[in-house]
Write a structure and sequence with these properties.
Blueprint lengths: L1 E9 L2 E6 L5 E6 L1 H5 L9 E6 L5 E6 L5 E2 L4 E2 L3 E7 L7 H13 L3 E7 L6 H16 L3 E4 L8 H7 L4 E5 L6 H8 L25 E5 L2 E5 L13 H4 L4 H7 L16 H7 L5 H15 L6
Helix pairs in contact: 2-9
């Protein structure tokens, strides 16, 4: 039995890198997985066998430390949350949604802002306090421009020896970012559809690419993330500055809405928490509460 990692999943085949020989083996999965409703994911560490004809079979999926549903990938160390500051315009609400889902999966998020070269000086002065706020609550924020080639070296250092997922809405420059760091990736990049104001979906499947001694996944662009896995009490733990203050709330399990002596609401009132972050939290909380129960 050999040990490997799934680098690509496509049309029912799993492309597994043999950890010993570094050879890429085309594998199918055992029927047993289908019966148990288990799907091998890109990023999975697996045991596999190779037949005399060179084809392989995934025999066992080793324990996962985490998994994402959308994109379908496992064992992620780091998430590069890529947002453009222009074309399309920066969306704090969508960023907060991404951060909440990533925090819920206990993956470290790094915020990567693209297309910084497109901002006017006035636009830069408007976005600077928002960027500073995310840094103050503990997030690493990397400002980049693929066109002007700045900010990229910092990302290369981060992904060394890591499994990294790169995510964000369509058209923000994820594929351009990867190609500018390593042109051999040759990932297809489309111009933004100006009529729609959003990018076309250029990435067709999830695949781990080797980059800077790490593995990075370029994933299909999408414009929303489900909060299905979160319960109301979980959400505030995914807003890092809320979680830090929640121990000072009067009530354990405080949802930071109508409860008296809430440390989070007090922090919003005195300007320590960004009002838009709190508003986004309330919207997400309403969404989670109105979700139909699963039976």
């Amino acid at each position: 039995m050999k040990k490997g990692i799934i680098l690509k999943a496509l049309s029912g085949f799993y492309y597994v890198e043999d950890l010993q020989t570094k050879e890429l083996i085309q594998c199918r999965s055992r029927g047993l997985f289908r019966k148990k409703k288990i799907t091998p994911l890109v990023g999975d560490s697996v045991h596999f066998t190779v037949e005399p004809d060179g084809n392989g079979y995934v025999m066992e999926i080793l324990n996962r430390k985490n998994e994402l549903v959308r994109p379908p990938i496992a064992n992620v160390d780091l998430a590069l949350v890529v947002f453009s500051v222009k074309e399309p315009d920066f969306s704090p609400k969508l960023l907060d949604r991404f951060l909440a889902v990533i925090e819920a999966n206990q993956i470290e998020p790094i915020i990567v802002l693209t297309k910084m070269d497109l901002l006017t000086s006035e636009e830069q002065s408007l976005i600077a306090p928002i960027i500073q706020y995310y840094r103050e609550i503990g997030y690493q924020v990397i400002e980049t421009s693929s066109k002007q080639q700045f900010g990229l070296d910092g990302i290369k250092d981060l992904i060394r020896n890591q499994i990294v997922v790169i995510c964000g809405q369509s058209g923000v420059g994820k594929s351009s970012l990867l190609n500018s760091m390593d042109q051999t990736l040759n990932i297809q990049v489309n111009e933004i559809s100006k009529a729609l104001g959003r990018g076309k979906h250029t990435t067709r499947h999830v695949e781990l690419h080797k980059l800077s001694d790490g593995l990075i996944a370029d994933t299909p662009g999408f414009s929303s993330l489900d909060l299905d896995q979160l319960e109301p009490n979980d959400l505030s733990e995914c807003f890092v500055e809320f979680y830090q203050r929640s121990q000072d709330c009067k009530f354990r399990g405080c949802l930071h809405v109508n409860e008296p002596r809430c440390a989070v609401k007090e922090a919003v009132e005195v300007g320590e928490i960004l009002p838009t972050r709190y508003e986004n939290y309330l919207q997400f909380l309403t969404e989670i509460k109105s979700r139909k129960p699963k039976y």
